[in-house]
Amino acid sequence: MNTQPTPAELPDDAVEMGRISGAWGIKGWIKVHAFSAGSDALMAARTWYLQPPVPPFDRGFKAFAGTLAVEVAEVKPHADTLVALCAASTDRTAAEGLKGARIFMSRSEFPATTDPDEYYWVDLLGLRVTNREGLDLGVVKDLMATGAHSVLVIEYPQGEATAERMIPFVAAYVDSVDTTARLIRVDWQPDYE
Fold it and tell me: Do residue 148 and residue 174 come from a single domain?
């Protein structure tokens, strides 16, 4: 493993995947808090891009400025988190210094999905949502994990402002997802609460 992280630019297709939540053990391993279902992608990637935390999480962070590209030697699940060994954390002190750093990776490095009905959240953001009658319901602004299933957070214009509607991302309401056409078709009406 290359022992020196290198200054870098974020790739054009960079996706924020999680953050470093602290040190794990004495040999430089870090604990990683992965966002949404990013664990599989983080475990598959060999290069992570680290950036300093943003306020209010940046208190006292002095490990580095800008963006670093780091080679990842090993990633494995541990309890409800991931632990990793990378070039930026050579011992426990270095690992502790990275607490709060944001982890990005290139979307092109995500592993392919094997289920045609499985999607990475990042690929759903910005997709237009229409119902069976062709009414435009808005654009996917975010996704929310509720435990039982994910929920699409749809933003739509309402007068001079914008409003949000939430649609469960389950087969009962989602008829189709076409990432190429950037369209999600749903069984939903604009006045559903």
Answer: yes
Strands (E), the chain: 6-7, 14-24, 29-34, 47-51, 68-78, 81-86, 102-106, 128-131, 136-145, 150-158, 161-168, 174-178, 183-186
Tell me: do 13 and 95 sit in the same domain.
Answer: yes
Residue with tokens 């992608």: 41
Boundaries of domain holding 51: 6-108
pLDDT digits (tens, 9 = 90+) for 71-108: 999 999 998 889 999 987 889 998 999 999 999 999 99
Q: How does pLDDT run across 10-52, given as a tens digit for each residue?
A: 999 999 999 999 999 999 999 999 886 567 889 988 899 999 9
